[in-house]
Description:
199 residues; mainly alpha; 7 helices; elongated
Amino acid sequence: xxxxxxxxxxxxxxxxxxxxxxxxxxxxxxxxxxxxxxxxxxxxxxxxxxxxxxxxxxxxxxxxxxxxxxxxxxxxxxxxxxxxxxxxxxxxxxxxxxxxxxxxxxxxxxxxxxxxxxxxxxxxxxxxxxxxxxxxxxxxxxxxxxxxxxxxxxxxxxxxxxxxxxxxxxxxxxxxxxxxxxxxxxxxxxxxxxxxxxx
Length: 199
C-alpha cells in the first residue's frame, strides 16, 4: 500500500514536470541593450584612467628599464574584466530581433559613444606600449586579442538589430577595429621595433 502511494506520487510529479511550460530565453529590449552598452562605456573609461596612470619614461620608467610585474597588473585585470562583461553581453544579446527606427536610433547613439570611448582606450594602450619589453608584452597582447574577438561578436550583434542606423554604427566599428588592431600590433614583439613603421 505504501508503495502504491509513493508510485502514484512520483507519477504525479513526473506528469507536472512534463506539463510545465519550457522557459524560453527572452530577447533583450532596446533599453536593456542600451544599459549594457553604457556599462561597457563606463568600464572602458575606467580602464583608460588605469592605463593613463602608468608612469611614462620621464617620471619613473624608460624603455631600457624593466618595469615591475605589478606595473601593468591592473591594466591586464581590466582587460580580463572587460572580456567577461562582453561575454555576458553577447549571451544576453542572442535572439534579439531588429528594433523599430526610434529604438534603433537610441541603441546607435549609445553604441557610437561606446565605440569612440573604446577606440580612445586602445590608442592609450598603444601609447604606453613602449614601456614594456619581453615578458610583459604577451599578457597584454593576449588580453587585447580576446577582447577583439568579443567586441567583433558584440558589435555585429548590435548592427543586426539597428537597420535604420547601421551605416553610422558600422563606421564607428571600423574606427574601433583600427585602433584595436594597432594596439595589438604594438604589443606584438615585431611591432615594438617601430610602432609607426609596422603598426
